[in-house]
TrEMBL record:
This is Glyoxalase-like domain protein. PANTHER family: BLR2408 PROTEIN, BLR2520 PROTEIN. Pfam families: Ble-like_N (PF22677). InterPro entries: Glyas_Bleomycin-R_OHBP_Dase (IPR029068), Glyoxy/Ble-like_N (IPR053863), VOC_core (IPR037523). Residues 3-127 form the VOC domain.
Amino acid sequence: MEKMIFVNLPVADLKASTAFYEALGFENNPQFTDETAACMVWSEAIYVMLLTHDKWRTFTTRPIPPATSSEVALCVSCDNRETVDTMNEIAAKNGGTKDINSKQDHGFMYSRSFADPDGHVWEPMWMDPMAIPPCEDAK
């Protein structure tokens, strides 16, 4: 079986969160979607499971952090710098918050960050592997 990642996120409003992720370009997989969860596909290997708070609590008794906290930043690669910018704008227009952290522009790598409606942090990024400066240790 191919290695895959399923990012599970608790969400306050499943319908609104599903619409938010669809606006960003994620596709809903109805096979794993019901009134308590929505499976959102980013790529063949990356899936985001949006779970209602009640569904989330069936997996853990740990508290759901408030939307103002950060436990993880989810970085996803984009085809170009324009897509990074577009994702941030789409996030802001669909209930998220753009540029929650400073924009990073290193020439060979570019990223911005946004929070979804529940405060989960995403960082779309673009990188040109051919333009990465050599590592100092490699000299």
